[in-house]
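Researcher: Batch entry, complex prediction.
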Amino acid sequence: MKAIFIAYDQAHYDRIVEMLERSNCRGFTSWDQVKGRGSETGEPHYGSHAWPSLAGAIMTIVEDHRVATVLEKLREFNNERPKLGLRAFVWTVEDGI
Amino acid sequence: MSLYGNAVRRPIMTTLCFVAVVILGLFSLRNLPIDLYPDVETNTLMVMTTYSGASAQDIEQNVTRPLENVLNSVSNLKHITSKSRENISVITLEFEYGEDIDVLTNDVRDKLDLVSSMMPDDAETPIIFKFSSDMIPIIMLSVNASESMPGLYKILDDAVANPLARVSGVGSVSISGAPKREIHIYVDPVRLEAYNLTVEQIGSIIGSENRNIPGGSFDIGSDTYSLRVQGEFKASEEMANIVVGTYEGKTIYLSDVARIDDSLEERTQETYNNGEQGAMIVVQKQSGANSVNISDKVLSMLPDLQKRLPSDVKLGIIVDTSDNIRNTIDSLVETVLYALLFVIIVVFFFLGRWRATLIITITIPISLIASFIYLYATGNTLNIVSLSALSISIGMVVDDAIVVLENVTTHIERGSDPKQAAVHGTNEVAVSVIASTLTLIAVFFPLTLVTGMTGVLFRQLGWMVTIMMIISTICALSLTPMLCSQLLRRNNRHGKLYTLLFTPVNRGLDAFDRGYGRLLAWVVRHKLVTFLVCMGIFIGSLLLVRQVGTEFFPTADDARLRVSLELPIGTRVEISKESTARLVDLWREKYPEIKMINYTTGSASSDNTFASMSDNGPHIVSMNIRLVDPGERERGITEIAASMRKDLRNFPEFKKAQVSTGGMGMGGQSTIDYEIYGYDFAETDTVARELQKMLRSIPGTADVIISRADYQPEYQVDFDREKLALYGLNLSTAATYLRNRINGQLASQFREDGEEYDIKVMYAPESRTSLEDIENILIYNSAGKGVRVRDVGKVVERFTPPTIERKDRERIVTVSTVVQDVPMSEVVEASMKQIDEMDIPQGINISLSGSYEDQQDSFRDLLTLAVLIVILVYIVMAAQFESYTYPGIIMTSLLFAFSGVFIILWLTGHTLNVMSMIGAIMLIGIVVKNGIVLIDYISLNRERGMSIRRAVINGGESRLRPVVMTTLTTILGMVPMAVGTGQGAEMWRPMGTAVIGGLTFSTVLTLLFVPVLYCVFASQGVKNQRRKLRKALK
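Model: Structure tokens for the complex:
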């Protein structure tokens, strides 16, 4: 099992959830309206006067073989709309109930 | 979920909500009556008290003064003026606007009850009379007749006046110029004396002969019959055979001592239409009824009515006030439509996409139509003020939608889907959209709180604009994002036409941005120079303030002139008629613009309400002139009026002549009244004459008139009370004898065809033409012994002032002048200087009123309002920016707005009047919006980490387009108003001009001056912060 943490511009939300569904990743946890900025590029998402946009975050735990597909799709999304900003990070899940 | 989130998710609901609003609005619009102005509630009450036989001075002493003293304590009273004339005292109470007139009426009634015991016994109970704009006739019809002239009154009363009075909403229909039938019993005094009879005896005999008396009922057999005596005369000739007495055994018939004259009232008003004698029918509306509706109904009835009249009687229209209303409203509607078109063009030009243009412009009709619901719900009308509000708002209601659309587009361009972009894009700007609407509401809402005359006018403007702004904001936060999500596309591909058309436009706009950026870069490097230049322009424009004249309201051209002429007092009506006829002939020839000219002269009978309200008499001529519509003639109404005034100078027989233009109140011509307060008639008369001479010498004055009429020569009978007592008489018996013989005694009423006509007994006209006739009048005492007037009194000739006018409980003479061709302020200034040099006796003082006073009041109100608005706007901005300095910086653009107003008024030759001041006040909200947009973005840049200077230049460059765009929509929305030539355009032209000038000028300077000030203050702020930091570190 792998955990994928996706931080994205709010506008991506619908598509990501739809994509997860299609990739047979049923479970996920999402946080609406979170703040943050990329390490290198990307506009900050602060919801402030200067940086009004906001981000969202999704954590999904998927079987190992699905990670590649999901990441591929996410990369596609990001390349399609580079200005919005979308990042994903994967790490191993050791256990769960 | 937020408003916009819901709207985007549920497009059908959103669409249908707005469709519902539009349907309701259109329904309201269909039912909205039209009128010229908002309903101005009456603020005037009149108290009329008759005291027959009392002279002006007696009336003043015994009736007017006690009443005034008591009425003066009624609350909310602004002025109390009175006219004490022979027989009658008329007190006018002018209240502050906006008070409930019914409550005031009750107050006045209470006060009158208090004073009733102090009134002279013979004085009648005071009557309270409400005067409002409703009293102004809405239609005047002319009637021309030849053979039917003697019976005209009855014909018109039956066939025209009565049917018209039945039209719902019509208040009263009065006929003037058609004399009423009256039966005169002209007695011969010599014969009366010979037969030992008196006028009184004859009167009472006629009265008791002309009777129907029921005699009860009685039974004959099985039936009951009623018994009656039908003694009423069936024809006036029957009276000749009445037995009035016996003399030496012989019966004396009425025909032996008198002749019966079945004719018309002796003293009547005569009316001439286009030079031919006829009559005039005046239709007044009921309070609150709509003039246009009534006039429509009346006009549609005319052909029918005409059919019922004898063939020689022709009806025509002298004045139809609704004509002017309709034309004015039509031309204003046209203005609004042009404004709409211009705004759409600007939006399309800047956005370059038809979908975006559609999204933006759809907010205009929705906001505008929604405001009709308000008008309908509150019972208002479609009038100049409400339509101006529409015109003003067109440019402003799109602003919010533009901001939203721009941000949504940015999001889409960054890669969001339209739906997401719509929600998030709107979310980001929602607060600032609401804040900018608040600044506008801060400007327009206080308009609803103004009191006084201006308040009545602009309350509606305030509400309308406030409502439209709120609706437009709601629209921008729901409909606009919804439409964006539906209509905008992520990959916007442009057609060939677009590329062809908009490539140069975009290139031009880009170059414009860059050019401005370069200018800004130069400006922020030369702060001091910019500051000095801008301040120099501002101070320079202040010098223009003295050059721009002021007045109350612009004079509107309603194609109608009123002329009142006065010949020397006592002139016989024939002479007045002859002189006027000459004048009318001259004018009809000289002014082809005249469509109809009508005049009335002579004393009005007391039962003609309309005529008896205004001054009348054999020496007074009042004239109504209707011109062709303003569009169809070269000369304006003021020009024609000026030329007519010049013509009148060649008619020295008209002692007083007044040509007035425009409607009553707003839009009428400017007048200045110089009120001379003082008790002594001789002294105040001298001052008034001196003032009149002085005013005539000032350029720009016309029709300088002294209100106090001439001393009227009259004969008075001074009875010797001792001698009267000796003969067993008292003064009132003696006076009544005089009155019955000259004025006539009302003996009875002659009934025919359901109408009643007065039967009056009086001396035959040939027996009352000399002083001897008066002196020879016989007065009988109770013992039946006669004595001649000359034995108990003396007939003397005296002069009395016909009317004593008072204002605020002091005697007053008003010298009034019409201001023509020059601003009112110039005349006031020139005259005040001369008045200071005049030698005015002690106890007399002069003060100014008329439109000048109204203007001063309104200007004071508007200035207070401006201050209030500035404070409110500052509060809204300070709250939004969470800063005291930024709003201050933005507010400096107001200085340039006012400079711009003065400069454009000076350039176009308009004056500073209530309309242009309203324009200036509106500017407060509009110009700060530009500043807000600019400062907001600059501070955003700073928060994003730019240096002050870079933030300013970059912010300026990227905000230039929105600023120019919103400014252009507002300016172009106003252009049709400023250049309009339709009927009534004189009224709103100054407002449009003021807004255009102020906005253009302030936008240009704001774009340079505000960034400079920002630089100064921001760097000062940075320095302060550093100093604080250093202190903290130490």
